């Protein structure tokens, strides 16, 4: 009887202890669930409360490595890849968040560039308005002088004085002055009218520029809010990872990039890429190379940090060829070239929405600023989904 009681107690302890296993990824799963709403659509909303997690059945085989998830242990035991399915889900979630942040960063940069242009236009219009008002004051002063002269002569117009003159010489002299006076008065009134219209046009255009500037400011604020939300969500996920898990996550990222790069190289495309850099392209590559190791910061364009298009636009500005600020505008405005004709200094645009850009440096590699938390680095040109290639100095 005593033996049976002891057995019952052992079974009870096993049941209570089983629920404690397999919790190494519980916090990460909760973090992913908390930010799923950010990746599902545009506006963030409160995530629904998750249903209670059922207690897993006790595992009769203890996990020999407490830092390894059960999925990793199973993969190790079966001789398959030790990549944890949970960490792979984390990697994909982070990719999505950082991609959304990159899209919003392009929107922010585009709004900033447009706002800068509007501000410059407003200053130019202000200068023109000041000059126009000065001209208008001079014209009004001239019109006042003409009126005073007419008053001084008793209000008799030059035409009447001309007709009343009996001196032939004075007649001819007066005729010339009358004609000149008529033309001068006509020209004065025309200039007054045109100047007033021009000033009104400048004022209308300045008002439109101010409205546009205000709209770009609202776009920037909205984009900034989206960027910060995505980056905060990604950081929350990474902060909940243990050191070993973060290291494993980096390995998974590198493996995914290498897999894509290998597939790209396997196509044989590198054998066709033989073009040499132009002199401007060499300068752009040299500038980009000097930025290696500097941190990615969204909206930054140097000298201490960069985002992806900030790096490429500054590199080509240093080479003497200013280009659009954003990767999307670089894709729209610069000349497209075939991949087989690519040469160092050309820009590779990535993803269907042209949300990322890197600079080709030869030998199948690029220099780029990846995303928040990473530094300017060298990567495989085919490590991401390639949209196409553009040439700044075509």
Commentary on this structure:
By secondary structure, the protein is of the alpha+beta class. Among the domains are: 93-237, Helix Hairpins (Orthogonal Bundle), CATH 1.10.287; 272-391, endopeptidase domain like (from Nostoc punctiforme) (endopeptidase fold (from Nostoc punctiforme), Alpha-Beta Complex), CATH 3.90.1720. The chain has eleven helices and six strands. It has helices at residues 2-18, 26-40, 70-77, 85-152, 158-164, 168-239, 243-266, 269-272, 279-290, 308-318, 327-333, and strands at residues 335-337, 347-350, 356-362, 365-368, 377-380, 386-391. The protein has a six-stranded antiparallel β-sheet. Helix 2 (26-40) runs antiparallel to helix 6 and helix 4 (85-152) crosses helix 7. The longest helix is centred in the middle third of the chain and has 72 residues, at 168-239. The termini are far apart. Mean pLDDT is 76; it is low at 12-83. This is NlpC/P60 family protein. Residues 68-84 have a biased composition (Low complexity).
């Amino acid at each position: 009887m005593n033996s049976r009681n002891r057995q019952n107690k052992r079974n009870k302890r096993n049941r209570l202890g089983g629920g404690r296993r397999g919790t190494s990824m519980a916090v990460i799963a909760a973090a992913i669930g908390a930010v799923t709403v950010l990746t599902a659509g545009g506006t963030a909303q409160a995530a629904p409360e998750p249903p209670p997690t059922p207690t897993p059945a006790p595992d009769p085989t203890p996990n020999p490595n407490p830092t390894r998830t059960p999925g990793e242990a199973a993969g190790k035991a079966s001789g398959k890849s030790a990549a944890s399915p949970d960490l792979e889900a984390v990697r994909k979630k982070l990719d999505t968040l950082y991609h959304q942040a990159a899209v919003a960063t392009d929107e922010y940069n585009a709004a900033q560039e447009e706002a800068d242009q509007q501000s410059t236009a407003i200053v130019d219009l202000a200068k023109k308005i000041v000059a126009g008002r000065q001209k208008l004051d001079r014209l009004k002063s001239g019109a006042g002088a003409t009126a005073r002269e007419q008053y001084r002569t008793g209000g008799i117009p030059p035409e009447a004085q001309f007709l009343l003159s009996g001196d032939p010489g004075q007649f001819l002299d007066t005729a010339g002055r009358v004609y000149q006076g008529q033309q001068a008065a006509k020209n004065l009134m025309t200039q007054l009218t045109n100047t007033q219209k021009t000033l009104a046009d400048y004022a209308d255009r300045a008002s439109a520029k101010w409205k546009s500037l205000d709209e770009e400011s609202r776009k920037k604020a909205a984009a900034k809010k989206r960027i910060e939300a995505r980056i905060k969500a990604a950081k929350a996920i990474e902060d909940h990872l243990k050191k070993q898990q973060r290291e494993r996550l980096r390995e998974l990222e590198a493996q995914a990039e290498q897999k894509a790069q290998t597939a790209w190289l396997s196509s044989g495309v590198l054998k066709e890429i033989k073009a040499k850099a132009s002199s401007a392209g060499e300068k752009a590559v040299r500038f980009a190379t000097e930025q290696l190791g500097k941190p990615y910061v969204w909206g930054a364009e140097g000298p201490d940090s960069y985002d992806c298009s900030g790096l490429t636009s500054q590199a080509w500005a240093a080479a003497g060829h200013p280009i659009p600020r954003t990767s999307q505008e670089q894709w729209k405005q610069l000349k497209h070239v075939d991949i087989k004709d690519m040469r160092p200094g050309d820009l590779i645009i990535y993803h269907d929405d042209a949300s990322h850009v890197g600079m080709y440096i030869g030998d199948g590699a690029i220099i780029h600023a990846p995303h928040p938390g990473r530094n300017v680095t060298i990567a495989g040109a085919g490590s991401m989904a390639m949209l196409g290639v553009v040439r700044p100095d075509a």
